Amino acid sequence: MKTNFVGMKINFDKLKIERPTLYARITKEVNHEYAGELEFYPDALGEEIEAELKAWKAAPSVHEVGCSCEACFQKRVSEDNAREKERLAAKAAGARLLQYMQEQGLKDNEHNRSKWSEFEAKLPTDVTFTPQLIDQFITGWRSVLEWGAPPAPVAPAPAPVERVVTLSADGSQQKSLEETPSSRWTLPQLHDWDRRKRAQALGESETLPPLEFIRGGKVVTEPRLPLSTRVGPQHSREQIEDLNVRTARAAARYTGSHGSGGSSWFDSRRL
């Protein structure tokens, strides 16, 4: 049995930071957490721990993976930032290459990819792909690359034409829901604006799909009635039933989300 153990000065505070796994193993072996700089006899804990401690003492700058010391933290941050910069530069390089394809007709084919491989093989292994590198490739290899006609420019979409609706009651124009009612509006304009505003608040679009049903063995298509429509003899039974169902659903949604006090300001006018 070995009795002539050799002591070693160990800074356990430093060991805990730089080699937390090794520190935890020693703590477990001796059932005690050391702190500060102490004379320690690692050979009493076995050859493996002794060898790791000696290696750490010989190369204190080599820290454990995941070391939480400030130097290691800053190193990881610096490495992460460098990788992120490289990733963003490569993304920008890909966008520049795509720009040559879309605007100048550079073909995305096997021939051009092989030329890029030749160009890439001559670069340093640690080179970062950047838009400037793509420009360098295109400038130097343009004559041996294959090009097609650049795509025709896409014509701009025409400006939307505002639809003007004329109200049949008095011939006045329909008001936008973005406008604020005023005394200058006609009665049909006020009625129409309020009906559409209610429908919007209740979650129903102004443009409703047609109502389809079977009547007399044939498919019949009729327009759906907007919410708040005053039904009359000119409306079919199917239109009225559909309106009642949608009104009940909309009222349930409105009450559930706004409570009982969500009436429109227009209610008090009784128009």
Name the features:
8 helices; elongated; mainly alpha; 271 residues; two-stranded antiparallel sheet
Shape: elongated
Give the % helix: 40-55%
Distance between the termini: 108 Å
Order of helices and strands: EHHEHHHHHEEH
Please summarize the sheet with the most strands. Answer: 2 strands, antiparallel
Low-confidence stretches: 254-271
Widest beta sheet: strand line-up: 1-2
Number of helices: 8
- Give the number of DSSP strands: 4
Rg over alpha carbons: 39 Å
Mean pLDDT: 76
Oligomeric assembly: single chain
Short description:
By secondary structure, the chain is mainly alpha-helical.
Protein model, in words:
The protein contains eight helices and four strands, in the order βααβαααααββα. It has helices spanning 12-18, 20-30, 47-58, 70-104, 110-121, 131-141, 187-201, 237-258; strands at 8-11, 37-40, 211-215, 218-222. The strands form two sheets. It has a two-stranded antiparallel ribbon with strand order 1-2. A two-stranded antiparallel sheet has the order 3-4. A hairpin with a 2-residue loop joins strand 3 and strand 4 (218-222). Helix 1 packs across helix 2 (20-30) and helix 4 (70-104) packs across helix 6 (131-141).
